[in-house]
Write a structure and sequence with these properties.
This protein has one domain: Lipocalin, CATH 2.40.128. It is elongated. It has two helices and twelve strands. By secondary structure, it is mainly β. Strands 1-4-5-6-7-8-9-10-11-12 form a ten-stranded antiparallel β-barrel. This is Outer membrane protein beta-barrel domain-containing protein.
Length: 272
């Protein structure tokens, strides 16, 4: 029973780290990273640190053949999470762009089981991913309110998940879990629509995995707004849905994640 609880805690820490980001849609349809009047023949850059705050996380985690159901809210995750770093970078010239995104998190929890024979559990969890995608602006236009644009992207994502459960007792010490790394193809579609001089609405869909290296499917759906607070700085907020269905077999047994999350996201974009 306690092992299932530990699996649940460590799995959701990994899941809270795996995903998110803004739609990275800026004020002009000519280029999602350029300010009005920018030269389309010049390179334009945007860096967006962000947070994803899942209010609901449901699914199943499996380590060494033992599975645990997951049903946590944002408070549960914040109680467990120690820290994380995530950012998205885009470089555009004309209709073509390069997008890279990275995330890293490290969590470690120590638990002591009471009883005549004291047992200590150490649960370190690390997760990282780096994605690299090429992008193309395939359509843009203008309505009576303002310009709009559509982008398509494709590339590769590298994933790494470490979940260890180290058990130490008077009789013996043992470890469960381990590290899984894999590459997967990724595709994306993004739309942006300028509502006013300072406000832009946007949406983004990304899919990856497609059965490659054990990852059946990984998806991200975002919708939200960009507020141009200053000339080169905008604030982004909205709502995100994310899911992953990953499974493989290790020497100790099945290692799997099948999790769905949703909740608000927040970000700040710096453009130059």
């Amino acid at each position: 029973m306690f092992l299932a609880k530990v699996l649940k805690s460590s799995a959701i820490l990994v899941m809270s780290a795996i995903i998110a980001g803004g739609f990275n849609a800026q004020r002009t349809a000519a280029n999602p990273l350029a300010s009005a009047g920018a030269d389309p023949n010049e390179w334009h850059f945007t860096l967006t640190p962000y947070l994803f705050l899942p209010t609901s996380t449901e699914g199943t985690s499996t380590v060494d053949g033992s599975s645990a159901s997951i049903d946590l809210d944002l408070g549960d995750i914040l109680d467990l999470l120690q820290g994380a770093l995530s950012a998205r970078f885009e470089a555009w010239r004309g209709q073509f762009g390069i997008i890279t995104e990275g995330y890293y998190v490290y969590i470690e929890e120590d638990v002591t089981l009471p009883g005549p024979a004291e047992v200590n559990l150490n649960v370190p969890v690390k997760q990282a991913y780096i994605s690299l995608m090429g992008a193309y602006r395939f359509h843009e236009g203008r309505t009576s309110r303002g310009p709009y644009s559509w982008d398509v992207s494709g590339g590769v994502r590298w994933n790494s998940i470490t979940q260890d459960i180290n058990i130490t007792g008077p009789a013996r010490a043992t470890s469960l879990g381990g590290t899984e790394t894999w590459f997967e193809p990724a595709i994306g579609l993004r739309a942006a629509y300028e509502l006013s001089e300072d406000w832009t609405a946007g949406a983004r869909v990304e899919l990856s995995g497609f059965g490659v290296n054990g990852n059946d499917l990984q998806y991200t759906v975002l919708t939200g707004f960009d507020w141009q607070a200053w000339e080169n700085v905008s604030l982004r907020f909205g709502y995100q849905w994310y899911g992953i269905d990953f499974a493989t077999t290790r020497s100790g047994g099945r290692f799997a994640y099948d999790v769905d999350q949703h909740g608000p996201y927040l970000g700040a974009s710096f453009t130059w």
